[in-house]
Amino acid sequence: MTLGRFTRRLPLAIMLAVVTAAPLFARTVTGVTNREEIPAETPLTVKKSEDFSINGKGDHTSWTKAEWIPLTKLDAGGIAYPSRFKIMYSTTGIYVLFQGDDEKISTKDYKDFDNIFNGDVFEVFFHPVPAQMVYFEYEVNQLDKELVLAISNIEGHGYTPWIPWSSTREKSGVKKMVNVTGGEKKVNGTIRSWSAEIFFPYSVLGLLPGVPPRSGDIWNANFCRLDYDSGKMVKWSWTPSIKESFHELKAFRSVQFE
Q1: Contact yes or no for 188/105 (Cβ under 8 A)
Q2: Nearest of 33, 52, 29, 38 to residue 218 by alpha carbon
Q3: Confidence (pLDDT) at 155
Q4: For the chain, where are the E strands, in sequence order?
Q5: Which pLDDT band holds residue 22 (cuts at 50, 70, 90)?
Q6: pLDDT at position 35
Q7: What percentage of the chain exceeds 90 in pLDDT?
């Protein structure tokens, strides 16, 4: 998938519409109209936590409440890097932690909101109310660059991504820290692994229905990785039934807030 640069000029309370959405959805995207279409399974429990500071390493004691969940490698080729995530929530937002082995920082010197998915990234998707076709996507790479989108998928109107923007007009409002081990944090750098610790304030998710979550609420979600060390895109996903695109909403799994 491809996505051009975005003009960013509005405060966080407003989302900036992107005029041309089609390139982002170059591959098939499938919608979900009701929860009965989601495969029956026990939702992943999202533990509740007090707020804490992040450093990219995920070594705060609060993380001991959450279990590591493995990602499944979807594509042939490339190295089967072990990859995993954790998730928790608080009264102010949602915490996600990624960790994956790696050998190389395969990305370009992108800026925030560039096409960072053409290089190594971790990705998060939240779809709180499957009957309403609005969901959230977040991507981060080893060099601390991010892409943040709220996406509407309305039948008859196509797909439109929107960008949350903070009052500083320089950052998205998402808090994130990235840690690289075994080498330098630079383009083509040799490394052993990398991790990303992310905090999503509920204000960033403000256009989505069902935000903030209440105890017992069930959302659909996915957690993913892209790696290009082999010279081509290799995908990992929490949901192993993904066929082509991470935007296959029918394949998302469920999380339940404690």
Answers
A1: yes
A2: 38
A3: 62
A4: 15-17, 44-48, 69-70, 72-73, 83-89, 93-101, 121-127, 134-140, 146-154, 158-164, 175-181, 193-201, 218-227, 234-237, 253-257
A5: very low
A6: 33
A7: 70
Q: Which residue type does 22 have?
A: A
Average per-residue pLDDT in the chain?
84
79 Cβ partners below 8 Å, 6+ apart?
Answer: 103, 227, 229, 230
- Reading the block at residue 147, the tokens are 């892409």
| Residues 6+ positions from 64 with CB-CB distance below 8 Å | none
Token digits for 257?
């807030």
For residue 230, what are its two tokens? 């082999």
Mean pLDDT (whole number) for 35-52: 78
Residues 6 or more apart in contact with residue 4 via CB below 8 angstroms: 20, 23, 115
Distances (CA, A) of 38 to 35, 42, 131, 157, 215: 5, 11, 11, 23, 21
Question: CA angle at residue 159 from 157 to 34, to 5 degrees?
Answer: 85
- Which amino acid belongs to residue 146? E
Task: Give the span between the Cα atoms of 206 and 15, in whole angstroms.
Answer: 10
Q: Amino acid letter at 18?
A: V
Read off the pLDDT of residues 50-68 as tens digits, 9 standing for 90 and up.
999 999 999 999 999 999 9
Distance between CA atoms of residues 247 and 82, nearest Å: 23
pLDDT in tens, 184-207: 999 999 999 999 999 999 999 977
- In a 13 Å sphere around the CA of 251, the CA atoms on its Cβ side amount to 19
